[in-house]
């Protein structure tokens, strides 16, 4: 592949066999995955001031700020990426490059999660913003196909949980459900903003048979996961690391609470993001991240990057960290990938075809 079009993910050895494994990325924020060089160019076009206009120092600034433990610095990183994503051209470019970076990571199915209401500062309305992102996703898929690589993408349209606009965003998602929008989410500051604050939107989407995932159980406790699953009809949970608060398990034995048992028995998928969770304090380390214990108990865990730029990561890097620091093997990686594809927001026939034609053969070709 052309290394300029499909750059090897940061922190990944180009010869790492994990890079060759077929992957699925479900929890992958569009505004958290820009290329630093793109940010610099887009910022110059709209006269937005950045901490630095040199590519590698800017990349380092994002990583250091996101991992600083200072919430103000962490949030500032998104202010810079969102500020340069306010025009049709910028949104299309960012989405196109996001797809190409997925392909370089070995991802063949990816969902781009983003909040259109944050991209209206320069005259776009939410429909125009969604259309601009879809154009970029389509262009990225076409460029991948020209290079002999396959990828399928979809948009998860997200409402900000601290705002009062979720029903309008849910209506937006439905208007675009037949043109690339595959799901709905709420994001932003979790603590103090429970999912049921947006129940009107979730009830509406439930009646319309539209897929929903909800950020829950990262910065707030297990009650938010309960509300997301049992009140707001979430088919998947974003992060969900604090489900361990509803269990008393040591070395694989113990008891599960009612909610944890429900999520295990019903295989409610958990979109887990190890590096990001360590950055935000939701987990102490990769080795101690709940994903491994939950995987061993049979929970439907999936491996995701969350914010590729801020966390300096990719699906490949997350998998490599789990292998090196948490004792995962290729079978574990395949289990998590099958989980991810199985709960992807795309039709059953496509999921089954991708498992048979892409996922299983891809894992059989590669040996760690």
UniProtKB/TrEMBL annotation:
InterPro entries, per database record: A_deaminase_dom, Ado/ade_deaminase, Metal_Hydrolase
Cofactor: Zn(2+)
Superkingdom of origin: Bacteria
EC number: 3.5.4.4
Residues in Adenosine deaminase domain copies: 22-358
Listed PANTHER family: ADENOSINE DEAMINASE
Annotated family: Belongs to the metallo-dependent hydrolases superfamily. Adenosine and AMP deaminases family.
UniProt keywords, alphabetically: Hydrolase, Metal-binding, Zinc
UniProt cross-references to SUPFAM superfamilies, sorted A to Z: Metallo-dependent hydrolases
Keyword Metal-binding in record: yes
Name recorded for this polypeptide: adenosine deaminase
Class in the EC hierarchy, top level: hydrolase
């Amino acid at each position: 592949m052309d290394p300029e079009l499909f750059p090897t993910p940061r922190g990944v050895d180009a010869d790492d066999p994990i890079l060759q494994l077929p992957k699925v990325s479900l929890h992958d924020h569009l505004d958290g995955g820009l290329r630093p060089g793109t940010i610099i160019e887009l910022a110059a076009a709209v006269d937005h001031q950045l901490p630095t206009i040199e590519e590698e120092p800017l990349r380092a600034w994002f990583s250091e700020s996101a991992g600083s433990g200072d919430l103000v610095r962490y949030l500032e990183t998104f202010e810079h990426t969102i500020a340069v994503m306010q025009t049709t051209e910028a949104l299309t470019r960012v989405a196109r490059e996001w797809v190409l970076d997925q392909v370089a990571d070995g991802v063949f199915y990816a969902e781009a999660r983003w909040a259109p209401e944050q991209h209206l500062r320069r005259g776009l309305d939410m429909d125009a913003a969604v259309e601009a992102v879809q154009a970029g996703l389509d262009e990225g898929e076409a460029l991948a196909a020209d290079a002999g690589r396959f990828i399928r993408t979809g948009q998860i349209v997200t409402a900000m949980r601290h705002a009062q606009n979720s029903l309008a965003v849910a209506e937006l998602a439905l208007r675009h459900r037949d043109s690339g929008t595959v799901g709905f989410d709420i994001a932003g500051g979790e603590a103090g903003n429970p999912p049921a604050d947006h129940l009107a939107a979730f009830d509406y989407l439930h009646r319309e048979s539209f897929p929903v995932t909800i950020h829950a159980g990262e910065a707030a406790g297990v009650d938010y996961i309960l509300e997301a699953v049992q009140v707001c009809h979430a088919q998947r949970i974003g992060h969900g690391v604090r489900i361990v608060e509803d269990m008393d398990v040591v070395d694989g034995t113990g008891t599960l609470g009612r909610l944890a048992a429900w999520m295990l028995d019903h295989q409610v998928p958990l979109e887990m993001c190890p590096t990001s969770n360590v950055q935000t304090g939701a987990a102490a380390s990769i080795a101690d991240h709940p994903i491994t214990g939950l995987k061993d108990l049979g929970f439907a865990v999936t491996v995701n990057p969350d914010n590729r730029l801020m966390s300096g990561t990719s699906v490949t890097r997350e998998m490599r960290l789990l292998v090196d620091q948490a004792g995962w093997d290729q079978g574990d990686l395949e289990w998590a990938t099958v989980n991810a594809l199985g709960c992807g927001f795309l039709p059953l026939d496509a999921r089954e075809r991708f498992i048979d034609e892409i996922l299983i053969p891809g894992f059989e070709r590669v040996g760690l």
